[in-house]
Amino acid sequence: MAITLDRAIGQRQQGWVNSVLSSQTFWVLIAVILACLFLSVATDTFATPKNLYNITRNFTFVAIIALGMTLVIITGGIDLSVGSVLCLCSMVLAVVMNAGYSIEVGIAASVGTALVIGGFNGVMIAYLGFPPFVITLGMLSIARSLAMVASNNTVVFQFGPDHDMLLALGGGAWFFGIANPVIYMIVLALLTGFVLRWTKFGRYVFAIGGNEHAATLTGVPVRRIKVTVYMISALSAGVAGIIQTGWLGAVTTNIGAGMELQVIAAAVIGGANLAGGVGTASGALIGAALIEVIRNSLGLLGINAFWQGTFIGGATVLAVLFDRIRSFRQSE
Amino acid sequence: MAVLELANVSKHFGAIQAVNDVSFSLQAGEVVGLMGDNGAGKSTLVKMIAGNFRPSHGTMRMNGSDLVMHRPVEARQHGIEIVYQDLALCDNLTAAANVFLGRELRRGVGPLRILDYKSMYRRAGEIFKELKSETRPRDLVKQMSGGQRQAVAIARTMLSEAKIVLMDEPTAAISVRQVAEVLNLIRHLRDRGIAVVLISHRMPDVFDVADRVIVMRRGRKVADKPIAASSPEEVTGLITGAIEQV
Predict the structure, then answer these.
(1) What are the ABC transporter domain coordinates in residue numbering (chain B) (predicted)?
(2) Predicted ipTM?
(3) Which of B69, B86, B101 to mutate against chain A (most A CBs within 10 Å)?
């Protein structure tokens, strides 16, 4: 009896290979790789250094925000304000630098704006019990309007004394010809992955998404964690905004419009569950990559750009469909 | 000396008198069945011991010193552990993660402390072994049977040196075989010298495992006697009011 009990307790539920094979993220990664292979063969233009450089850089902005969004989604929440927050943070950076302040001041103001907005969202949700959908929907409208107020709805493309430094920060390629935004994305993804797996904070994020009531009863500081998560989400939008400003070299009040939906799609394609409790940092990246590869390939294959939405929407539904099929099998 | 002593404890919510002048004591290594119909005041009584509510009147003493709690987390610091009716488990986490929820083990120094998976798996495994439950620390709770889920919830109470374990309807929604498992888990706790309060509607379970039965009706304690000196018929009568008081 003692031996069998020991063995039963010591056993693992499933092997390493099995758990990889059953993860949505893995299959989406396979889809991305297959799509890339297909495009390399089917077109002369896909596998060129210039196109690959473009792809990697283009999807970083969505990917960076998807990292923050993934945390929010794991807790069972949603943040619809990220596109507008990106716009507002870019505009704050642009306006401050345009007024002659240094890049440090500009970035500090921009990051500060993001944290204040995220903190506001979080406090309203965690302490006042607002549904995340409602409060971040409100913020979607507020943040974009504030960006218009800050810039008087003009395009800002002069960034004062540190103009060149900002452009290098976002548009340069300091290491081995890899676009800077890609480097930031990888660092942030590693950081997010580490936090989710190895810290108490990460564990609590999952616990809140799994059973918020249980988390509260066992002494998890649920409200504090929730506020932090919304601050991180807004911060990720702010950081993406700063980098994008450097890359584009100009800020308008319509950047990031509709981006929240792309970001949520990326997180969901990558395996985050909108019901909460499930999600990974790598999934956010891979989901964002799939979206960008689809966009890019449609262009290269000469398919009308109007079809983009159909393909991206289809990919979202398809990714979740696989997950549904798997859970139907499990419940049988 | 009694582990826990309640003296003339009352609790009212506005005009509603939920618990009225209840006194009893709990000894170490004793299983007490707390019975009563819905609305008899059992939950309110237990929630006071668990730190959710403060008594309106009366005192609670633990090992001879006054027990005043403002938040449920404080109960745990006093060695009072609660197994909630819904078990308060996170389905998306592993058994070990649930056992250690809110009390994670970490290794490293200063701010660079990371979760110590290895120690948590090992310790959780030891507890499951002690409980003689075939529960694997690495399994997700989502995929577990009712008995295993109970074992996870009970394992939580064994992390620290608990003195009192309050169990709210642990056998309400599980199969017959699993009920036997849970009753065994309760005996394990008792053998460790822990006082167990078992809130239950199920007469057979209480008569199977408890040493003493306390019956509540309409906020008052109407019986408090050894199981051996009572019978299911008497307890039923006390719960419904057919027997006024003993």
Answers:
(1) 4-243
(2) 0.84
(3) B101
